[in-house]
Design a protein that fits this description.
Layout lengths: L2 E8 L3 H9 L4 H4 L3 E8 L2 E8 L2 E12 L4 E6 L5 E9 L2 E9 L5 H19 L1 H4 L7
Antiparallel strand pairs: 1-7, 2-3, 3-4, 4-5, 5-6, 6-7
Organism: Kibdelosporangium aridum
Protein name: Polyketide cyclase / dehydrase and lipid transport
InterPro entries: START-like_dom_sf
């Protein structure tokens, strides 16, 4: 099972970054290819993504550990899973993503970079600093 890894340093506070990423409703705003995410109870999330031009719909799990500043997610139907850690670094925040996929795919590296770009755009936006994320 291939593992993909990306890290990005953001110019935003750790609390702001973590709370934004931990909100399931924000997943489609930052997670590349994610079109819809809706909590349905417990750690279960109904998701829809576009993968290789095809819509995929299903259930996933999404777990937030506020003490460790860690978010974990995965598919209920496969061994696809990921971990996102948020760490303070002086006046910046480091976001670290590790993704486990069931097969190698050159598009995953690009998708992780795009995901981190979206996160950076959302949490570093001027209105994000005031406590609200951009709806773009």
């Amino acid at each position: 099972m291939p593992t993909y890894h990306r890290t990005r340093t953001l110019h935003a506070g750790e609390d702001r970054v973590f709370e934004y990423l931990a909100d399931v409703n924000n997943l489609p705003k930052y997670f590349d290819h994610m079109k819809m995410a809706k909590p349905v109870g417990g750690d279960t999330v109904e998701v829809e993504a576009e993968v290789h031009g095809e819509k995929e719909h299903g259930e996933a799990w999404f777990r937030v550990d506020r003490t460790a500043r860690r978010i974990q997610w995965g598919s209920r139907d496969s061994d696809y899973s990921g971990v996102l850690d948020v760490k303070a670094d002086q006046d910046r925040t480091i976001v670290d993503i590790e993704l486990h996929a069931h097969h190698e795919d050159v598009e995953i590296d690009q998708a992780l970079d795009t995901t981190l770009d979206h996160i950076q755009e959302q949490v570093e936006a001027p209105d994000a600093r005031k406590g609200t994320a951009s709806d773009s």
